[in-house]
Structure formats: C-alpha cells, structure tokens
Amino acid sequence: MAEPQTTPRPGMSAPGWRPGDARADTGSMIRVDQAGEYGATRIYAGQLAVLGDRHPASRAIARMAAQERRHLDAFDRLMAERGIRPTLLQPVWNVAGHALGAVTALMGPDAAMACTAAVETEIDEHYSEQLRALGEDDPDLAATIAEFRAEEIEHRETAIAAGAENALGYPVLSAFIRAGCRAAIALSKRI
Q1: CA dihedral of residues 9, 12, 13, 18 (deg, nearest 10)
Q2: Helices 139-161 and 109-134, packing angle to 10 deg
Q3: What does pTM read for this prediction?
Q4: How many CB atoms lie within 10 A of CB 55?
Q5: Cα 115 vs. chain centroid, distance in angstroms?
Q6: Under a CB-based contact definition with an 8 Å cutoff, are residues 127 and 143 in contact?
Q7: pLDDT tens per residue across span 86-136
Q8: Nearest by Cα to 177 from 77, 11, 58, 47
C-alpha cells in the first residue's frame, strides 16, 4: 500500500499546520504583547513626567509614546475580540513601567534613550520569535506583529541616534533593563 503524499504537488503549497502539529499559542502571545505595549506606554509616561514637554528629547519620546498607544489599542481590541484575559500583573507593570521611565529620565536624557534601546532590543527579539512560532497559523496577527516590530526597531534606532550608548554605565544599564523585560515577558505569558 502506498503512503499518502506528504509533499505538495507543483503549484500547491503545503499547509502550515497538520493534525498533531504544535500550534502557536496566540492567546498567550496577545496577552504578553498587550502587557508589553502597556508597559511601554507607562515607561514613556514616566519619562515625560520627569523631562516635561520642553526638553529636546521629549518630542521623540512623545512620538514613540503615541505609536505605543496605537499598538496597545490594537492589542486591547484583539483581546476583546478573542476573549483573552489580560495578565494579572498589569498593576505591577503600571507601577514598574512608570518607575523605570522616571528613574532613567532622572539619570538624564541619554539614560532615558538607553532604556528605550534596551526595551526595544528585547521586543524585536520577542516579536521575531512570535513570528517564527506563528508561521502561517494566524496571518492577521502576524501582520500586526510584523508592523509593530518594524516600529519598535525604529524606536531603538531613534534612541541610539539620540545618545543611548552615551549613558553612564550603558552596558550594565542595558543588560539590567533587558533582563527585566525578559522576566516580564515570561511572567505575562502565564499569569
């Protein structure tokens, strides 16, 4: 007896998923992405609270904050549409994000930008990992993540161009913030 054909015929593409294959956990993805975008809005709010609207860095921070707000709104909609609960840690991310933004801004505009560069480096890796995991399972979600990833990369490049790497103790500050981001991502996926 011949085995069923598992390779696609010419002109046909193989399905992205087959029974028994692992599928991307889109609920967890959306939950953690919403939490991350919420945290980003809180970081920028903390930075702007310290720097005010007259500081030269404030214009770039306000523009990035507006994009993060748009990202958050999109993930809020996806959560409502798909019936996904938010992370129970949202009150923690509210305080921690604002505090991180305020503390780095108090250290100076270079440190505020170092914070952005570190966070966006982790988000770039996180979104890239999600896109690999999604494959073709959820094209609409993948398109949203890809669009937002491009903007997060732009934020990182803006921060570096604005002096992030000039911040006092940049390698340590960056490593600390990146480790915190990784921990927040891991916790928000599950809790």
Answers
A1: -70
A2: 160
A3: 0.81
A4: 15
A5: 13
A6: no
A7: 999 999 999 999 999 999 999 999 999 999 999 999 999 999 999 998 888
A8: 47
